[in-house]
């Protein structure tokens, strides 16, 4: 999941730079995302960004992950009103694990070429349209062709969409695996201003000696973590800053 997310974010950032986006303004927009969107690339406030030089990729990854993980706690990401997990929980968990096992080695674009409007296909379409706004796509590619294909129920065979599919598949597999467990893992993230806790969080910014320096807090979440029923913790990834910078 982490590698797919980083790869897609890196490509997206590269395309933004090629399209002459104001990256600093885009980062400020993401930081203030509760009141604005990334689609315009305009700053939400006049305040300075907490994101350091060459760290825009972390803000962008935070934006992508926030969008793609939205609805993770529901059995179909709220794409429909399905209640299979309540009506027949044992069968539902078994089906989720079977789908996880069968899909793990599949190439997502080949799968979607055969079944473009399967549940996974619908998930990909919904998340692509959520992450890549029309203004963003037109700015990056000069047209809305990929969006038109997605809206028509198809899946473009472009490098950009292929990188997106790698992230979508990783999240979909994680979702299937989670719902095959009893109880499903609990998703959590490091909230802005929260104390950094090593047992629950991993800093995306590296520090000398591998330990986050004292006095640092969460600037923003990058990707969520999970608490599994047996006590296992999958750490949330966070961007940390000195406490005084917030």
What does this structure look like?
By secondary structure, the chain is mainly alpha-helical. It has 2 domains: 1-30 and 53-182, no CATH class; 187-242. Helices cover 47% and strands 11% of the residues. The chain has a 3-stranded antiparallel β-sheet with strand order 1-4-5, with no helix packed on it. Strands 2-6-3 form a 3-stranded mixed β-sheet. A hairpin with a 5-residue loop joins strand 4 and strand 5. Helix 1 runs antiparallel to helix 10. Residues 188-239 form the GIL1/IRKI C-terminal domain. InterPro entries: GIL1-like (IPR040225), GIL1_IRKI_C (IPR056813). It holds the Pfam family GIL1_IRKI_C. This is GIL1/IRKI C-terminal domain-containing protein.
Rg measurement, Å = 19 Å
Assembly state of the chains shown:
single chain
Question: For the largest beta sheet, what order do the strands appear in spatially?
Answer: 1-4-5
Largest sheet: 3 strands, antiparallel
Distance between the termini: 29 Å
Could you say which overall geometry the principal axes of the C-alpha atoms support?
A: flat
Name the beta content range.
5-15%
Mean pLDDT across every amino acid position? 90
Query: Strand tally, please?
Result: 6
Number of helices: 10
Helix share of residues? Answer: 40-55%
Report low-confidence residues grouped into runs of 5 or more: 34-46
Q: Structural class, please?
A: mainly alpha
What's the number of domains? 2
Pattern of helices and strands: HHHHHHHHHHEEEEEE
């Amino acid at each position: 999941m982490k590698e797919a997310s980083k790869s897609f974010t890196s490509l997206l950032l590269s395309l933004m730079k090629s399209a002459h986006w104001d990256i600093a303004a885009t980062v400020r927009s993401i930081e203030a995302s509760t009141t604005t969107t990334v689609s315009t690339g305009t700053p939400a406030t006049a305040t300075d960004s907490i994101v350091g030089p060459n760290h825009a990729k972390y803000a962008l990854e935070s934006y992508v992950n926030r969008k793609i993980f939205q609805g993770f706690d529901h059995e179909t990401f709220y794409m429909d009103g399905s209640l299979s997990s309540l009506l027949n929980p044992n069968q539902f968990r078994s089906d989720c694990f079977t789908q996880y096992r069968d899909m793990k080695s599949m190439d997502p674009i080949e799968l979607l070429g055969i079944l473009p409007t399967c549940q996974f296909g619908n998930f990909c379409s919904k998340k692509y349209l959520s992450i890549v706004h029309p203004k963003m796509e037109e700015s990056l590619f000069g047209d809305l062709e990929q969006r038109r294909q997605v809206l028509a129920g198809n899946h473009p065979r472009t490098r950009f969409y292929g990188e997106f599919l790698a992230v979508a598949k990783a999240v979909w597999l994680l979702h299937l695996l989670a719902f095959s467990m009893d109880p499903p893992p609990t998703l959590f993230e490091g909230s802005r201003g929260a104390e950094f806790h090593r047992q629950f969080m991993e800093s995306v910014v590296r520090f000398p000696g591998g330990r986050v320096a004292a006095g640092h807090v969460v600037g923003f979440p990058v990707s969520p973590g999970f608490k599994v029923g047996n006590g296992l913790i999958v750490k949330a990834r966070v961007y940390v800053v000195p406490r005084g910078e917030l």
